[in-house]
Specification:
By secondary structure, the protein is of the alpha/beta class. It has three domains: 98-244 and 403-453 and 532-557 and 575-582, FAD/NAD(P)-binding domain, CATH 3.50.50.100; 251-402, 3-Layer(bba) Sandwich (FAD/NAD(P)-binding domain); 455-531, EF-hand (Recoverin, domain 1, Orthogonal Bundle), CATH 1.10.238.10. Helices cover 38% and strands 17% of the residues. A hairpin with a 4-residue loop joins strand 24 and strand 25 (594-598). The relative contact order is 0.10. Residues 1-36 have low confidence and may be disordered. This is EF-hand domain-containing protein.
Length: 647
């Protein structure tokens, strides 16, 4: 061991000199005439004034370091992706999967003695086992309303079964873009089984055809199979609508745009017409007919399709196909009103019409389609003297997108119920319950439903509740109580009769009371000002979200109370507030530009507005998968253009 003296000597100046370079002349002389070499543990010292490379040559340093950093990052990302991809491959084997015997051999019942699906084949799967306390919630349709509801539904309270003929959710607002290849159809769909899995629910690829309200059985039809019943505790009808024909003959010669198959068919037909017009044997008159595209309807769907078609012709067809196509192509929009996009602000309609004029898109206003033939569209307009004038426009392609009507199932439901007067949808109350059906058991949302606006139908009911002294007259205090009930049953009536005292004074008699006649007149006047909600994805989604939250809150409480009191049609008026629609604005694409109509503010612009329009629709996608695919489609279109192939 070293002594204390030795340990101290290690800390002397001599020992410390071993740890740092020596520059003194005495040290150099003590090195036997050899030049003194500073020692930094093998490293040479920097000369005076030395600076690192990133300070002497920042550009050179960046040119060396940046590619290294980028390639390293990309390499790490690639390795991570490859590792994740490798982890997704699995080889699973399942033996002796449990299946409820009733799912394999269902019993028969109901008025038609059909099989009753009391159990489904995946009821015993892990995470889906039925609890005896769960109520059966059956949803018809896989659109915006259904998806909005499933996102907010409590899976612990409900045994959910979704029934739809197509096993995917379709993002309809971007369907016009898919008709010309701006985006791919695959980017607009999300499998319903992925969505229903969030609530541990079940999916049946079938369509509803009938319903038995007394026994709560929904009749379902699957392709190639015998019809069967699906029992329910609550039924939500969200099956959408079909295009209205308005009694126009020849609609079999038109294309529609509501489904994936419609978009694919339109894309094939458009490309087929363009390729036929390029053939050397095609006569000029036939070429002009092939290149004449007619859109019947000036709503958002018709306007956006015309805009997308014009963009494709100018940005892709002009570069790769004969220039004569651009010279002879024509697009016509036939609108029955005095403006296209007539549900938007007038400034928006004017902007769209002016842009179409610059783009040479023919806008025919105040015209009604009389007939559609295989090669033309016949329409009428009013002459100054009021007589109808008939016109004909040649057509190689016709799109029909005007109005909505009931699909066969909603027609059947309406025929089974009293007090269903609406021609285009099922009437529901402010809680979205179908009027006439057993209370609290059947709901309807989306395009297939419309909220009732006839206040006068509830007049006697309200008078009976509010006439406290039973004199047959309504005074001011009783009227205030009545209007609170009106506002709760009809939330949209509040903005048309907000000042209760002013409304009372307007209709009151000399004795400052209201009788049945005065109340009926008041209710009729208010009802005339109330408008039905538009058949849009925004309305359907909000209604679906409302039902999802409502069922999650009152499902357990309402069911337990119903069982305890032996009341099977438990009303939810007192358990949850009625539905109130909040308009978030309307938007539409108009040829490398877009328009926005938000409350009292309207905005229209070019590329900036177009990218904002894309951003809104991108954010509204139902999954990260569709967001990624949609973004890649837009990038692909910008780099490579649209795909002009036909398959």
């Amino acid at each position: 061991m070293l002594s204390s003296t030795s340990r101290l000597s290690l800390g002397s100046s001599t020992s410390r000199s071993l740890l740092r370079p020596t520059h003194s002349p005495s040290a150099a002389a003590g090195a036997a005439g050899k030049a003194a070499k500073p020692r930094w543990f093998g490293r040479k010292p920097h000369p005076p004034g030395w600076k690192p490379l990133y300070r002497r040559r920042p550009v050179l340093f960046a040119s060396i370091a940046l590619p290294f950093v980028v390639t390293s990052s990309l390499g790490l990302c690639l390795l991570g992706l490859l590792g994740y991809d490798a982890s997704t491959y699995a080889d699973k084997h399942l033996d002796k999967v449990a299946v409820n015997p009733l799912a394999l051999l269902p019993t028969r019942g109901g008025k038609k003695n059909l099989k009753v699906a009391e159990a489904l084949v995946d009821d015993e799967d892990e995470g889906r086992r039925i609890s005896s306390k769960k109520q059966r919630l059956v949803v018809v349709g896989g659109g915006w309303g259904s998806v909005g509801m499933l996102k907010h539904l409590d899976p612990d309270l409900w045994h959910v079964t979704l029934i739809a003929p197509e096993n995917y959710f379709l993002f309809h607002p971007l369907l016009p873009s898919a008709t010309v290849g701006t985006v791919e159809v695959r980017s607009l769909v999300e499998p319903l089984r992925k969505i229903i899995a969030r609530v541990s629910g079940h999916y049946l690829q079938a369509k509803a055809v009938d319903v038995d309200f007394s026994e709560r059985l929904l009749e379902v039809q699957a392709a190639g199979e015998e019809n069967f019943y699906v029992p329910y505790d609550r039924l939500v009808i969200a099956c959408g609508s079909v295009n209205s024909t308005h009694g126009v003959p020849g609609l079999e010669n038109c294309h529609q745009l509501k489904t994936v198959q419609d978009a694919q068919g339109i894309r094939r037909r458009v490309m087929d017409n363009l390729e036929k017009a390029c053939l050397p044997g095609t006569e000029e008159a036939e070429r002009k007919r092939l290149l004449s595209f007619v859109v019947c309807g000036g709503g958002p769907t018709g306007v956006e399709f015309a805009s997308e078609l014009f963009d494709m012709v100018n940005e892709d067809v002009l570069d790769y196909m004969p220039k004569i196509l651009r010279d002879q192509i024509s697009v016509h929009i036939i609108q029955s009103r005095d403006h296209i996009l007539n549900t938007y602000a007038e400034t928006i309609s004017n902007y769209a019409e002016e842009r179409f004029r610059r783009n040479e898109i023919d806008t025919i206003l105040n015209a009604r389609v009389k007939e559609v033939t295989p090669d033309s569209v016949i329409y009428t307009t009013k002459a100054p003297d009021g007589s109808l004038v008939e016109h004909t426009v040649e057509s190689g392609f016709t799109l029909w997108s005007t109005g909505i009507a009931m699909n066969p199932f909603t027609q059947r439901v309406a025929s089974l119920l009293p007090n269903q007067y609406h021609k285009h949808a099922l009437e529901v109350d402010s809680h979205l319950r179908v009027i006439g059906a057993p209370l609290g058991t059947v709901y309807a949302i989306g395009d297939c439903a419309t909220i009732e606006t006839r206040l006068v139908d509830h007049l006697l009911e309200m008078v009976d509740v509010c006439d406290e002294n039973k004199d047959g007259q309504i005074d001011k205090d009783e009227f205030e109580k009545m209007m609170k009930i009106v506002y709760r049953k009809f939330p949209t009536a509040q903005k048309h009769a907000e000042k209760i005292r002013d409304v009372f004074d307007k209709y009151a008699r000399a004795d400052h009371t209201l009788g049945l006649n005065e109340l009926a007149t008041m209710f009729v006047d208010i009802s005339k000002k109330m408008t039905n909600l538009p058949a849009t994805a925004q309305v359907a989604n909000q209604q679906g979200v409302y039902l999802g939250k409502k069922f999650s809150k009152v499902g357990g409480v309402g069911h337990e109370a119903a069982v305890t009191n032996e009341v099977h049609d438990d009303p939810d008026d007192m358990l949850y507030a009625p539905f109130k629609y909040k308009h978030m604005g309307s938007l539409a694409y108009i040829g490398n530009s877009a328009v926005f109509d938000i409350d009292n503010y309207s905005f229209a612009g070019g590329l900036v507005a177009m990218y904002l329009w894309r951003g809104v629709y991108w954010s509204e996608q139902v999954s990260t998968r569709t967001r990624v695919l949609l973004m890649l489609d837009w990038i692909k279109r910008g780099i490579f253009g649209r795909d002009l192939s036909k398959f």
